[in-house]
């Protein structure tokens, strides 16, 4: 069966940031202690006129531009998010129209907490492998919610990542998707009912047996089923709810800081939920070298993991300077916790 490959990618982050220390001071908590426990210095904040659809559009538009593939040739799009703008009206359908994709497109919105974006990547990969489509888009996009005063407020961020996949033998194929697997259980560590504005969580229970148990089992399956050694991988990207969790699981499995460093983006943007591990992957794709291998392991509360193994077909390519500025990977506007722009 033929492989698929990433032929284009894009990212979008809102230009606004807020420092974790400012949130802590507002709630009269210790900013030094919070920074030490989370390892996150600041997070992205959406503008008043932004939502997960506008994020997805910008990221997907950039993926199209970097690929050079006409949008009319794309006939699949899957959008993962915890914060679709409408309860009943597909984000994916709006994107088919806004991006001018082939109207005869397979399109669907996905939800699986923070792994919905990687689930979309798996689906598009399968469509291409089967020969049903030639090109497809997979996106993770979120305006992550955290109830004021809740622990989530310190890390819940906003952003999107998009990947255009095509056949691995395409002349512009950048990174081949080798294989993937998923691990799923019914673990109630994080939830939000349809009529609730903010999610609830089980406090420390979200760590173990939530994040750690699932990532641990997934990594064991990667080693046993795929017959690879984690030490042989060049880049590893985990879901990053904070800076501590992924580093702890990496240390447990002998994964080095060098293997983690390129995709470790959470300290300066926070947890962008469905886009989190995918934005880390974007960072790797910009810098990785030909033949290097990449492992992405996402995690979604509720709960499950996706593991995706990839190999670079050529040297990575950085997003154009003007595109990086447009995507607000460079920024200088900070908010105070009241919402006012900082001086």
TrEMBL record:
Swiss-Prot/TrEMBL GO biological process terms: secondary metabolite biosynthetic process
Any one GO molecular function term: hydroxymethylglutaryl-CoA synthase activity
Short name of any one Pfam family annotated for the protein: ACP_syn_III_C
Keywords for the protein's UniProt record, in alphabetical order: Acyltransferase, Transferase
SUPFAM superfamilies in UniProt: Thiolase-like
Domain Beta-ketoacyl-[acyl-carrier-protein] synthase III C-terminal per the UniProt entry, residue ranges: 226-311
Keyword Secreted belongs to the record: no
Protein's name according to its UniProt entry: Beta-ketoacyl-[acyl-carrier-protein] synthase III C-terminal domain-containing protein
UniProt source species: Candidatus Kaiserbacteria bacterium RIFCSPHIGHO2_01_FULL_53_29
């Amino acid at each position: 069966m033929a492989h698929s490959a990433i032929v284009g990618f894009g990212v979008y982050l809102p230009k606004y940031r807020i420092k974790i220390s400012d949130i802590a001071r507002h709630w009269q908590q210790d900013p030094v202690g919070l920074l030490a426990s989370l390892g996150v210095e600041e997070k992205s904040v959406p503008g008043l006129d932004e939502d997960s659809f506008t994020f997805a559009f910008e990221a997907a538009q950039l993926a199209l531009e970097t690929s050079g593939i006409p949008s009319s040739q794309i006939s699949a799009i899957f959008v993962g998010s915890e914060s679709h703008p409408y309860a009943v009206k597909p984000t994916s359908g709006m994107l088919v129209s806004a991006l001018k994709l082939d109207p005869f497109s397979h399109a669907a919105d996905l939800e699986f907490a923070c792994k919905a974006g990687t689930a979309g990547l798996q689906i598009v990969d399968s469509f291409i492998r089967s020969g049903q489509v030639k090109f497809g888009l997979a996106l993770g996009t979120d305006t992550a919610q955290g109830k004021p005063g809740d622990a989530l407020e310190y890390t819940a961020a906003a952003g999107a990542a998009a990947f255009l996949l095509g056949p691995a033998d395409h002349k512009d194929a950048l990174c081949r998707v080798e294989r993937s697997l998923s691990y799923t259980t019914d673990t109630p560590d994080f939830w939000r009912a349809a009529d609730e504005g903010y999610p609830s969580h089980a406090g420390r229970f979200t760590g173990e047996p939530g994040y750690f148990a699932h990532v641990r089992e997934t990594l064991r399956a990667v080693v046993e089923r795929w017959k690879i050694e984690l030490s042989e991988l060049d880049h590893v990207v985990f879901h990053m709810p904070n800076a501590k969790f992924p580093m702890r699981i990496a240390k447990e499995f002998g994964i080095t800081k060098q293997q983690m460093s390129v995709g470790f983006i959470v300290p300066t943007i926070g947890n962008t939920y469905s886009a989190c591990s995918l934005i880390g992957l974007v960072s790797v794709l910009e810098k990785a070298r030909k033949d290097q291998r990449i492992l992405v392991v996402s995690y979604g509360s509720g709960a499950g993991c996706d593991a995706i193994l990839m190999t670079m077909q050529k040297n990575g390519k950085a997003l154009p300077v003007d595109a990086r500025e447009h995507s607000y990977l460079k920024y200088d506007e900070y908010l105070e916790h009241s919402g006012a722009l900082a001086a």
